[in-house]
Amino acid sequence: MALEVCVKAAVGAPDVLGDCPFSQRVLLTLEEKHLPYKMHLINISDKPQWFLAISPEGKVPVFKNGDKWVSDSDVITGILEEKYPEPSLKTPPEFASVGSKIFGTFVTFLKSKDSSDGSEKALLDELEALETHLKTHDGPFIAGGKVSAVDLSLAPKLYHLKVALGHYKNWSVPESLPHVHGYMKALFALDSFEKTKTEEKYVIAGWEHKVNP
User: Fold this and answer.
1) Catalytic: which of 3, 5, 6, 20?
2) Is the separation of the CB atoms in 61 and 76 below 8 Å?
3) Which band of pLDDT confidence, cut at 50, 70 and 90, is reported for residue 1?
4) What per-residue confidence (pLDDT) applies to 2?
5) What does the DSSP 8-state code read for residue 9?
6) Is 20 marked active-site?
């Protein structure tokens, strides 16, 4: 029996997979574990009644665990790891928080209208910390040669960073961070990533109202 998951539909294209990085994280986990699943695309600006009945807060992703719907990508990926331990995607605890502040600093910098507010430096500091980790550990992934949960969480966020900052700020990850570039290349080349990513134009559309409220 296929597993069921509700994810965000693209802005302006309700029949196309959307740009939610947390939804993609769950889809990446399902793909990497080779689990069959049924995907429900949810139009966030016009949520169907049946969806609000299972997710009263209207949040995606939502995953059907037995006869209960569960939200939050941390919880969902935890359930998938527990129920379907093979292939294991567990990240060693000492690496689990690598890169965890990148997304927050990216969003602050993306929305910033003041070039002297320190938001760019805060993001660069986080990317430099990732560079240091990758440089001092075997790769290409955070925990070594095999992809793990921490990579599947970071991959969609780094894709958003690349696309949104490129579009709205003409900004890209500095060439002085070659290991970060190599890491992003390895993530974006995964079959699971290719299969679950949204088009760049939908990432741009998804951030529009936050960048220009």
Assistant:
1) 20
2) yes
3) low
4) 81
5) E
6) yes
